[in-house]
Amino acid sequence: MMANSLIKQIVDEQLASLLRADVDAWVDWWHKDGVFEFPFAPPGYPKVVKGKAAIADYMAGLPEKIHLERFDIVELHENRAGDGGVVEFTCTGTVVSTGRPYNQHYVAILKTKEGKLSLYRDFWNPLVAIEAFGSAGAFEDAFAGGEE
Fold first, then answer.
1. What's the rounded Cα separation, in Å, for the pair 21 and 61?
2. Number of independent structural domains in the chain
3. Which one-letter DSSP state was computed for residue 83?
4. Does 103 map to a domain?
5. Strand-pair category, 30-37 with 48-50
6. Which of 5, 10, 15, 78 has the smallest number of CB atoms closer than 10 Å to its CB?
7. Is 63 a member of any domain?
8. Dihedrals phi, psi of 51, to nearest 5 degrees
9. 111 bridge partner residues
10. 98: alpha, beta or left, given left = phi > 0 and alpha = psi -120 to 50?
11. Taking phi first (over 0 means left), then psi (-120 to 50 degrees means alpha), and beta for anything else, what does residue 72 get?
12. How confident is the model over 36-58, as a mean pLDDT?
């Protein structure tokens, strides 16, 4: 069942699009009312980005900020209803402005609506990003927008 699930398809396609630096393809998987949440966001960083257009704006410059080299899925579990799941994955990349490694470990809760991603609750380590960008201020400036 998982081999052809919508959650697996979304995760696979979104990660592949980020490796291609194709943010538009990544955004295409979002529902118009999608919500991107960051429960562990540091002060000054958005905790919530609401709506496909705002999510597109938030992600627009990602390829110029971080060169993403690899994603590895550790675990992927779909809920019984088939409209959500949990994914754990790692990311390897380099922050363009500093040349520092960006090696992040993510756990995300995903929900879908009408075949699109409606919720992405992103549990990640902001300290990894702050270190890679060189400071909390540089990291916050790189990803402005959303609600604190």
1. 10
2. 1
3. S
4. yes
5. antiparallel
6. 5
7. yes
8. 95, 140
9. 84, 119
10. alpha
11. beta
12. 93
- One-letter identity of residue 41: A
Structure token digits, residue 139: 């990291």
**How many residues in the chain?**
148
Instruction: Give a yes or no: residue 74 inside a domain.
Output: yes
Strands 30-37, 116-123: parallel, antiparallel or unpaired by DSSP? parallel
Report the candidate in 59, 51, 74, 49 with the shortest Cα–Cα distance to residue 26: 59
Q: What's the one-letter identity of residue 69?
A: E
Strand ranges for the chain from DSSP E = 30-37, 48-50, 66-78, 84-95, 101-113, 116-123
Q: Which two tokens stand for residue 141?
A: 């400036």
Residue type at 34 in one-letter notation: G
Kindly list the distances between the CA atom of residue 23 and the CA atoms of 27, 58, 83, 126, in Å, as whole numbers in the listed order.
6, 10, 23, 21
| pLDDT at residue 45, as a whole number | 85
User: pLDDT tens digit string along 92-129?
Assistant: 999 999 999 999 999 999 999 999 999 999 999 999 99
